[in-house]
Write a structure and sequence with these properties.
Helices cover 9% and strands 44% of the residues. The chain is mainly beta. The radius of gyration is 20 Å and the shape is globular.
Length: 231
C-alpha cells in the first residue's frame, strides 16, 4: 500500500519531468555578421529540420527544438535523416538540462561548407529571470563599470548575470571601461543611459577584434511572454 501511494504521488512529477525534455525554445542571434552572411539557413536537431532566420544584430523569433541531449547543426538545404548531413557543417551540443537557449552565431571564414560557427547559451528561467541582464565578455580584456545600481566586473571571456539595474521602468546610467594587459589605465567604452524594462530579459555582448582596439557593446531585449510558441 505504501509503495502504491508513493508511486501515485510521484507520477505527476515524472510526467512533469518528461514534459520538460520533450521540446524547448531557442532564439538565434548573428553577432557582427559579415556582408555576405546568409539570411536564412536550415536548423537540424537530429529529428526535425526547419528553416530559420539569421537576423543581423537582433534576436530571431522563437523556434522549438527537441529535448534531451542533442547536436544542433546549421545546413544549407533540409535533410530527413542524420546520414544526409554533410561533413563539416557548423554544429554544437545541447545538454538535456538546457530548457531554453540562445544560439549565438558569428562568422567563420575557415569553414568552407558554411562560413559560420555558433555557441549555445543556456537561458533557462532558473538561471536568467525577467528584469535581469546577462553580460557576455567575448574579448580578452577585463571590463567593468557601473550599470544603474549594479556594479559590473568581468574578466576576459566570461559571463555574468546582473540583477535589475533599476527598480522601475526608467532610465539608468551605464558607464563601462576596459583594461589593456600591462596598462593600469582604464579606457572608456561607453557612457550613456539605457531604459530598464522589468518585463523583459536583456542580453549584452562585449566584442571586438582584440589588442588595443576598443571593444564594442551590443544589447538585446528578449520579451518571451509576447511570443507565442507554435503548436
Amino acid at each position: 500500500m505504501r509503495l502504491f501511494i508513493y508511486l501515485l504521488l510521484s507520477f505527476p512529477l515524472l510526467v512533469s519531468a518528461q514534459e520538460k525534455v520533450t521540446e524547448r525554445s531557442c532564439r538565434i542571434l548573428f553577432l557582427n555578421p559579415p556582408a555576405d552572411a546568409p539570411a536564412k539557413l536550415q536548423l537540424y536537431d537530429g529529428t526535425t529540420c526547419q528553416e530559420v532566420d539569421m537576423p543581423e544584430m537582433n534576436f530571431s523569433k522563437l523556434y522549438m527544438i527537441a529535448g534531451g541531449n542533442l547536436t544542433l547543426r546549421f545546413l544549407r538545404t533540409p535533410v530527413v535523416e542524420p546520414e544526409e548531413v554533410p561533413a563539416g557543417v557548423p554544429m554544437s551540443n545541447v545538454s538535456e538540462t538546457v530548457t531554453d537557449c540562445y544560439l549565438v552565431v558569428s562568422g567563420d571564414p575557415s569553414n568552407p561548407v558554411i562560413p559560420i560557427r555558433f555557441q549555445v547559451i543556456d537561458a533557462g528561467e532558473q538561471k536568467f529571470r525577467k528584469g535581469q541582464m546577462m553580460w557576455y565578455n567575448l574579448t580578452d580584456q577585463a571590463v567593468g563599470g557601473q550599470v544603474g545600481k549594479q556594479k559590473l566586473a568581468m574578466k576576459g571571456q566570461s559571463r555574468v548575470v546582473l540583477d535589475p539595474p533599476a527598480n522601475t521602468s526608467e532610465a539608468y546610467d551605464v558607464n563601462i571601461a576596459y583594461r589593456i594587459p600591462d596598462d593600469e589605465l582604464l579606457h572608456p567604452i561607453c557612457q550613456t543611459q539605457w531604459i530598464h524594462d522589468a518585463r523583459s530579459r536583456m542580453v549584452v555582448f562585449i566584442y571586438g577584434p582584440g589588442g588595443r582596439s576598443t571593444p564594442q557593446i551590443a544589447g538585446f531585449t528578449d520579451f518571451r511572454d509576447e511570443v507565442q510558441k507554435p503548436d
